[in-house]
Amino acid sequence: MHALQIGFYSIPLLLMLIALRVPVGVALGSVSLGGIALLKGGAAAYGMATLVPYEFAAKWELSAIPMFLLMGALSFHTGLTSSLFECARLWLSRIPGGLAVATNFASAGFAAASGSSLATSAAMGRLAIPEMLKFRYDPALATSVVAAAGTLGALIPPSIMLVLYGMFAEQPIGKLLVAGVLPGLLTAAVYALMIIMRCKLNPNLAPPIEDQASWTERLNALKDVWALPLLILAVMGSIYSGLATATEGAAIGAVMAFIIAASRGTLSVATVKISVAESLKSTSSIFFIGIGAIFFTRFLALSGVPQFMSDLATDLAVDPLLLMLATSVLYLVMGMFLDPLGLMLLTLPVLLPFFEAAGLDLIWVGIIVVKYIEIGLLTPPVGLQAFVVKGVVGDSVALGTIFKGILWFLGAELIIMALLLGFPSISLWLPGLM
User: Fold this and answer.
1) What residues contact residue 57 under an 8 Å CB cut-off, 6+ apart?
2) For 209, which DSSP code?
3) How far apart are CA 176 and CA 182, in angstroms?
4) How many domains would you assign to the chain?
5) CA–CA separation, 121 and 386 (whole Å)
6) Containing structural domain, residue 87
7) pTM, 2 dp
8) What is the full DSSP assignment across 235-257?
9) In angstroms, rounded to a whole number, what is the distance separating the alpha carbons of residues 326 and 323?
10) For residue 412, how far is the Cα from the chain centroid?
11) In the chain, count of helices (H) and strands (E)?
12) pLDDT by residue (tens digit) across 344-387?
């Protein structure tokens, strides 16, 4: 069998294994090593298996991942994020759908500390959904805003997805993190505008709150949220100014989280232990999938698939717009069924040659790819974000109700993606100033 055929046959085989619920890292590694053994022999596959894990884990850039995860875990377990929703509620409760808008912006703030969509939705669901249901908010709105706003965790820095994309696409991670700021804020703003318009037109979705907060209560609430903006400013300010690389910025964030928690008197041995344990567990899971993706990349390179696709894209003179539309369909469909990290690392080795041949800016492409993967987390029938929220609310809200509310946010995403695709400067303006 020709090497190119082996490479192409491996892709449906890989998808079949993932469909059978084989862990993504295991599926990537087993298919890749088996393919390398067919192409170059068992000794070559064994040599690859012994070298690649160390080569991947030893990359200096990837040390940002455990540092960002530790920063997020410390922020959560020491209470740096717990006052976000309360502050947003007090300040925004007067506007139509105020609690839902507050949840939306509080999720954006939590996402900036955690870097995880699923963690953001799980944490904000426990805080915000009971409060909204208590004030007779429509259950579909109350649950869907938590599911949708949680996706900001992959875009607003620090973003683990963008760190990994930068490593695989060989793009500067600092610029990618900065590039995610405006698209993340745009998403939060469009979500908020959609909620306000819906609740203005149909007040039954979010009955006005009669017990309004005083200015004294609002100003006092600001005293409890100073820590998180300071933490985010320390990380992004150091990276944007050029004083620190993305890895050094992550370390600054982790140290700052320790210092802030200690100054607030919320740091303890128990919180440090659980934060470190969570960070190690998440890091090992991410690295396991990443190592499998490296195996797959090496295997495809040996089979000649990337070169074939690059030549094909050049010969066909692929229109960048058509390429991005095809990419959109691919990620939206596969995002219904696959873990976002696994999906990105599965598809990048295949798609990057097309992006490069089409002359697309890979910083902009990274933002678009991560955005589409996050939208896939909302798309029925297997939107993982909806299932996370369902796990929080239990039997009190039906899964169909959650998806019904999510459809409104998917409509908002059509506007957001049209803006990001039509105006790349939204993503590229801040990195261009660095």
Assistant:
1) 287, 291
2) P
3) 11
4) 1
5) 9
6) 3-433
7) 0.75
8) HHHHHHTTSS-HHHHHHHHHHHH
9) 5
10) 18
11) 22, 0
12) 777 787 788 888 877 888 999 999 988 888 887 788 766 777 87
Q: How far apart are CA 75 and CA 89, in angstroms?
A: 20
Low-confidence ranges of the chain (pLDDT < 50): none
Helix (H) or strand (E) holding 1: none
* Residue 139, token pair as written in the block: 């259950």
In angstroms, the CA 434 to CA 237 distance is 11
Name the strand (E) or helix (H) holding 279: helix 269-303
Token pair, residue 46, equals 């064994």
Query: Which class for 259: exposed (0-12), middle (13-18), buried (19 or more C-beta within 10 A)?
Result: middle
Burial of 224 from C-beta contacts in 10 A (0-12 / 13-18 / 19+): middle
CA separation for the pair 290, 292 (Å, rounded):
5
205 vs 391: CA distance, rounded Å: 23
What are the helix (H) ranges across 304-361? Answer: 305-316, 320-334, 340-357
Radius of gyration, alpha carbons of the chain: 22
Length of the chain: 434
Q: Which residue has the tokens 């409104």?
A: 408
Mean pLDDT over each residue of the chain, to the nearest integer: 79
DSSP string, 379-411: STTS-HHHHHHHHHHGGGS-HHHHHHHHHHHHH
Residue type, 261: A
